Amino acid sequence: MLLRDRLERLGRQPSARAPRRDADLERLASELSAEVRENAGGRYVVLEEVWPMPPSRPGLAGSALVAGLGDAPLHDGGLCFWDTETTGLSGGVGNQVFLLATAHRDAGGLLLRQYILPDPAYEGGFLQAVTDDLGASCALVSYNGRTFDSPVLEGRLLLSRRSPDCLRLPHLDLLHPVRRVFKARLGQCNLPVVESMVLGRDRGDDIPGFLIPETYFAYLRTGDPGVLREVIAHNRQDVVSLSLLLDHLLELLEDGGGAHPLDRFGAARLLEAAGQADRALALYEGLWLEADGGWDGDVWPGSWTPVELGYVLGLRLASARRRRGEHAAAEPVLESILRAHPAPWQAAIMLAKDLEHRRRDRSAALEVTSAARAALEATYVRSGLDERCLEDLTRREARLERRVGAASAPSAAA
After folding, report:
1. Helices 212-222 and 3-11, axial angle in degrees (round to 10)
2. What is the Cα–Cα distance from 292 to 269, expressed in whole angstroms?
3. What does the DSSP assignment read for 301-329?
4. In sequence order, what DSSP letters do the residues of 222-233 get, joined into one string?
5. Global pTM?
6. In 3-state terms, the chain is what percent helix, strand and coil (to 5)?
7. Going by C-beta distance under 8 Å and a sequence separation of 6 or more, which residues neighbour residue 268?
8. Torsion 311-313-316-321 (CA) sign
9. What is the mean pLDDT of the chain?
10. What is the torsional sign of CA 182, 305, 318, 344?
11. CA–CA dist 169, 228 (Å, integer)
12. Tell me: the pLDDT tens digits for 99-136?
């Protein structure tokens, strides 16, 4: 459906509405292949199905993805992938959750449940159902859930005098590792872009996110369950993609294989940040060998060029080797950067430090520093980082000149 048709369809609806009755719940459930159930909070509507999925990858507990989530036991069967659709696009207790999907892995695939709020008057049963489902998990997995979904749902729970303890479980928000791994290649990391460019999945004629709140209001005005079909499909796709995305990240972190160099570099950064230095170094070294052979810049996607990746990769590799005390192994990397990159200022500073303090070769350090300072001064456009490097190089050059001069003074006098 064209966007214009969607907008016109929503705009034609009358503004007045009557509260939903029990008969409306039965109609909603019937037309959407859902069920009407009841709990201590009241009646609610849920659509439940098993979504076929390929076997998941084990080993989440030892993955860099869960660094910082605490010591709670994590296992694939206890993960709850979840996503909400709300009546607004910002936070605050006035923003109401009207659709919440959960997905749990089992032998048959994903056990998918979508809880639908038929009317604000039925929020008690809806909130009780979703908190029971979330709370039965060992960990939550979302996409931007820490920033948006959790605060909105917590606000509604507190307003209804319910405990938000289900939201205190370990929470893996995939947006953050996805940004670290894929942002250099993708530029932006909203879920539809990641689905298309990373998972190779096409949503087709998906409803735009900004139309979702008004679509729910149109349902409340008209009582037509068919209005919600696109929103339900959108919500379902979100949680299915979360499960696929988690497996893709685990595979990439375990074995980068044939992934794009930018993705493998992002995976190495994530491993390094999680304290898995050996695995990060192995990825850096493998990429460095590829960079030395050259990458095809003509088909290079994303916001970084091969030259830019080679430079940052070299700095990361050299720094990792120096932290391990492997200064002799770091020097050839820094020297290669100086030869190949048009703006190797940071590498020059690192190499000058090693030459001066480790090899005690102040003359060589002065030579590197002077050449880099002169080249940097000759550039007409300098970034803030360039200015800081220039300040460091200028100060370092002056100090080295004094020390080299002082060291040669006695022999000159003689």
Report:
1. 40
2. 20
3. -SS--HHHHHHHHHHHHHHHHHHTT-HHH
4. H--GGGGHHHHH
5. 0.85
6. 60, 10, 25
7. 279, 280, 283, 284, 287, 316
8. negative
9. 87
10. negative
11. 30
12. 999 999 887 789 999 999 999 999 999 999 999 999 99
CB-based contact 125:133 (threshold 8 Å) = no
CA distance 53 to 106: 10
Phi, psi of 75 (to 5 degrees): -145, 150
What's the gap between Cα 293 and its chain centre? 30
Cα–Cα distance between 364 and 246 in angstroms, integer? Answer: 49
Q: What pLDDT shows up at residue 15?
A: 47
Strands 79-86 and 139-142, by their bridges, are: parallel
8 A C-beta contact, residue 35 and residue 49:
no
Q: Which two tokens stand for residue 183?
A: 């942002």
Residue 131: both structure tokens together:
């908190």
Amino acid occupying residue 214: E
Q: What is the DSSP letter of 147?
A: I
One-letter amino acid at 44 equals Y
Q: Which residue spans within 133-184 are E strands per DSSP?
A: 139-142, 171-173
Separation of alpha carbons 94 and 71, rounded Å? 35
- Alpha-carbon dihedral of residues 133, 135, 140, 144, nearest 10 degrees? 80
Q: For the chain, what's the residue count?
A: 414
Instruction: Identify whether the C-beta of residue 183 lies closer than 8 Å to the C-beta of residue 312.
Output: no
Q: How far apart are CA 230 and CA 208, in angstroms?
A: 10
> Position of tokens 């005390």?
325
What letter represents residue 283's amino acid?
L
Tokens 């190495």 found at: 268
Q: What is the pLDDT of residues 306-317, one digit of tens each?
A: 888 889 999 999
Interatomic CA distance for residues 230 and 401, integer angstroms = 71
